[in-house]
């Protein structure tokens, strides 16, 4: 039996890729008051948490997990196409989407994050299918790619803080044979990423040079976020 202090359910992860699917939430039982006298009997990860990540991205969850941040996660409720209307800057789009995600679900503190790739004067989102992923990779070949990631923090439904960073990645010349073998190994996982690559996997083979923060490239500026959480008393200083 899983116990909680005020949390009604816990998500059950069924997939480890960038668009992990959640199973129906499992019912949890309230912690009996007698148990509160001996908290050592319970893992703190089962207690009521005030921080929510508005994302189903496995890599963003993994970043927070590895950093030791306590949080719950939920799927953001945003219309990305509508939010992008009228915007042509990767920076503006990433910030607007990150802020909208942080405001899209209720919670004491909610984290939202988003990433946008630009190259050769074009903006790129997630490829719709494997054929489009190959087209994106052929376009990136021999060009510099800019990857912009933003993160936002909302408090009680009001925007409290946001931050955006851009990394620059020089894509080497990619042969058609390489692209075919690469997608055979990396699809469908890279279909859930902007730029059609995972830096933590075979995607590192795409590049000749990388300039920028590692976490920004993974999809969320983690170091500034951790600082913001400490400043607000959500992490020990």
Explain what you see:
- With 237 residues, this protein is α/β, with parallel strands linked by helices.
- It has a single domain, classed as Maf protein (Alpha-Beta Complex), CATH 3.90.950.10.
- It is 27% helix and 28% strand.
- The chain has seven helices and eleven strands.
- Strands 5, 6, 7, 8, 9, 10 and 11 form a seven-stranded mixed sheet that branches. It has a two-stranded parallel ribbon with strand order 1-4. A two-stranded antiparallel ribbon has the order 2-3.
- Helix 1 (58-66) links the parallel strand 5 and strand 6 (72-74).
- Helix 4 crosses helix 5.
- The longest helix has 14 residues, at 90-103.
- It is globular and about 50 Å long.
- The model is unreliable at 1-48 (pLDDT under 50).
The overall number of domains is 1
The level-1 CATH class: Alpha Beta
User: Structural class, from helix and strand content?
Assistant: alpha/beta
User: Could you spell the SSE succession in H and E letters?
Assistant: EEEEEHEHHEEHEEHEHH
Strand content: 25-35%
pLDDT averaged residue by residue: 84
Largest sheet, strands/sense/barrel: 7 strands, mixed
Number of strands: 11
Number of helices: 7
What is the fold named in CATH at topology level?
A: Maf protein
Radius of gyration: 19 Å
| Shape field | globular
Q: What percent of residues adopt helix (DSSP H or I)?
A: 25-40%
What is the name of the CATH architecture? Alpha-Beta Complex
């Amino acid at each position: 039996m899983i116990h909680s202090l005020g949390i009604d359910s816990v998500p059950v992860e069924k997939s480890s890729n960038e668009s992990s699917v959640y199973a129906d939430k499992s019912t949890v039982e309230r912690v009996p008051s007698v148990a509160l006298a001996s908290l050592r009997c319970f893992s703190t990860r089962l207690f009521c948490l005030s921080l929510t990540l508005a994302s189903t991205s496995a890599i963003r969850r993994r970043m927070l997990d590895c950093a030791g941040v306590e949080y719950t996660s939920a799927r953001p409720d945003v219309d990305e196409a509508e939010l992008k209307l009228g915007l042509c800057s990767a920076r503006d789009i990433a910030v607007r989407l990150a802020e909208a995600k942080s405001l899209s679900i209720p919670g004491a503190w909610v984290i939202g994050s988003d990433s946008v790739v630009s190259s050769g004067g074009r903006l790129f989102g997630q490829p719709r299918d494997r054929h489009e992923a190959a087209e994106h990779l052929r376009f990136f070949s021999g060009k510099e790619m800019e990857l912009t990631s933003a993160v936002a923090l909302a408090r009680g439904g009001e925007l409290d803080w946001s931050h955006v960073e851009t990394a620059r990645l020089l894509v080497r010349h990619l042969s058609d044979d390489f692209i075919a073998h690469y997608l055979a190994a990396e699809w469908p996982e890279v279909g859930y990423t902007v730029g059609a690559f995972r830096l933590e996997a075979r995607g590192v083979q795409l590049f000749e040079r990388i300039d920028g923060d590692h976490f920004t490239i993974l999809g969320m500026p983690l170091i500034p976020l951790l600082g913001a959480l400490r400043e607000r008393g959500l992490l020990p200083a």
